[in-house]
Amino acid sequence: MTKSQPKYRIIANKILENIQDGTYPLHEFIPKEIDLADKFQVSRPTIRQAIQILVSEGYLARRKKSGTWVQSTKMTQGFTHMIKSYSDEMGEKGVIPKTEVLNLTKITATLEIQSALKLSVDDTVFALTRLRFADEIPVVLVTSYIPTKYLPDLDQHDFTKESLYHTFKDHNLALRHASRELEILKADETTAALLQVSLNDPIFYFHTITYLDNYAPVEYSIAKYRGDLNSFKIEINQ
User: Fold this and answer.
1) 124 and 91 in a common domain
2) How far is the C-alpha of 85 from the C-alpha of 92, rounded, in Å?
3) Strand-pair partners of 10
4) In whole angstroms, what is the distance from residue 205 CA to residue 202 CA?
5) For 195-215, what is each residue's pLDDT tens digit?
6) Residue 1 placed within a domain
7) Terminus of the chain with fewer CB atoms < 10 Å: N or C?
8) Cβ contact 208:182 at 8 Å
9) DSSP character for 80?
10) Are strands 230-232 and 75-77 parallel, antiparallel or unpaired?
């Protein structure tokens, strides 16, 4: 720490020390801005800048109308370069996964879904929307569309306990290839509420098409990852 550092950076470092030594425990709220300003004898705008640094670095998160709390640093996801179930990937990181099923219904494929899954006008799909957690923190909101012709009894499965990719495997549907497109968008009201972020916070927005051995598309998914909790590892082989 040097005297040339801005005051808000010095305060951010002191707050980070309190996080690392357990003064401010993981998943607990830190003191309010006014209390921190009094503790460090600085203005509230300085405290606000210090907190924003730690939010952007992934140490803190804001919960609307509640306060600022300590979170784990960003999780590096292998989602971009492998086909693996969320539960398996979280388990390998030592994180406890949890899934809430928000919707599982059979619908007629829209034009977007028809195009992605190479379906006809009257073809039906299952729409499965899940909110995925890591250590009780909502991390990703994902909707998957699966042609009913591949898994006609999909709606009989309990995806709070079962893995969709394991279900594919159990039905001899081998996943061999995936195509993913990434955008950075702002969280709308519904997404912000479910992922417990603020309106217009940045989110990673993935469109994924997953294919079988014969390159027939078997799943089209739209995933919204929290920008403050996730980073993505991309491998390129020559």
Assistant:
1) yes
2) 11
3) none
4) 9
5) 988 889 889 999 999 999 888
6) no
7) C
8) no
9) T
10) parallel
